[in-house]
């Protein structure tokens, strides 16, 4: 992608009401993310900061080797009133706490998870997105029920960093 196209995409993305955009044209992998969408709401008059990275595209084999899961979703981590982190939904989706109807849940209160472990599945537009831990933590509480429609920014888990 050329620089002019990237700047145009950045302008359009900044004005849009989406939190994250991931584009791959086969030669360049571009990720744009509004950090404020993954933190507490900005103060009045404060604007959203936008960050993006552009890198050469990698093959599926290279991506697997880098342990970057397909369909993964990044976490929002505002701090709860109890001092623990709150993991919020980065998208509007249906929450599934287990990989299948007869399967045990990914996590329960008291579960200790490592970075990269699945916390739940968020289904949006028939796409199953695994919400994964970005750091080692202990689940304090699960704030959504299986099959719930969750909103963008809704708290899903209260966690304590390990």
Please describe what this structure looks like:
- The chain folds into two domains: 3-65, no CATH class; 72-161, OB fold (Dihydrolipoamide Acetyltransferase, E2P).
- The longest helix is centred in the first third of the chain and has 13 residues, at 3-15.
- The protein is mainly beta.
- It has helices at 3-15, 60-65; strands at residues 20-24, 28-34, 50-56, 72-73, 85-88, 93-96, 112-113, 118-124, 127-132, 137-142, 149-150, 155-161.
- The strands form three sheets. The protein has a five-stranded mixed beta sheet, with no helix packed on it.
- 12% of the residues lie in helices and 36% in strands.
- Residues 39-78 have low confidence and may be disordered.
- It has two helices and twelve strands; from the N terminus they run αβββαβββββββββ.
Record the SSE blueprint.
Layout: H1 3-15, E1 20-24, E2 28-34, E3 50-56, H2 60-65, E4 72-73, E5 85-88, E6 93-96, E7 112-113, E8 118-124, E9 127-132, E10 137-142, E11 149-150, E12 155-161
Parallel strand pairs: 4-9
Antiparallel strand pairs: 1-2, 2-3, 5-12, 6-8, 6-11, 7-10, 8-9, 10-12
The stretches of 5 or more residues where confidence is low (pLDDT under 50) are 39-78
Could you give me the name of the CATH homologous superfamily of the largest domain? RNA polymerase II/Efflux pump adaptor protein, barrel-sandwich hybrid domain
Can you tell me the number of structural domains? Answer: 2
Name the structural class.
Answer: mainly beta
Spatial gap, N to C terminus: 40 Å
CATH class of the largest domain: Mainly Beta
Mean of residue pLDDT? 74
The percent range for helix content is 10-25%
What's the arrangement of strands in the largest beta sheet? 4-9-8-6-11
Report the principal-axis shape: elongated
Number of strands: 12
CATH architecture classification name of the largest domain: Beta Barrel
Number of helices: 2
Give the SSE order as H and E letters: HEEEHEEEEEEEEE
Query: Radius of gyration, Cα only, in angstroms?
Result: 17 Å
Indicate the proportion of strand residues: 35-45%
């Amino acid at each position: 992608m050329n620089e002019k196209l990237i700047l145009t995409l950045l302008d359009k993305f900044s004005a849009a009401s989406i939190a994250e955009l991931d584009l791959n044209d086969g030669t360049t992998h571009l990720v744009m993310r509004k950090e404020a969408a993954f933190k507490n709401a900005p103060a009045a008059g404060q604007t959203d900061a936008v960050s993006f990275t552009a890198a050469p595209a990698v093959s599926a084999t290279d991506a697997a080797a880098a342990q970057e899961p397909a369909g993964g979703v990044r976490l929002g981590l505002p701090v709860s009133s109890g001092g623990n982190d709150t993991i919020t939904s980065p998208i509007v989706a249906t929450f599934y706490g287990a990989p299948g109807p007869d399967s045990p849940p990914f996590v329960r209160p008291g579960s200790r998870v490592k970075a990269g472990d699945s916390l739940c599945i968020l289904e949006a537009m028939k796409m199953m997105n695994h919400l994964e831990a970005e750091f080692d933590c202990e689940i304090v509480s699960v704030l959504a029920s299986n099959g719930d429609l969750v909103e963008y920014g809704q708290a899903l888990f209260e966690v304590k960093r390990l």
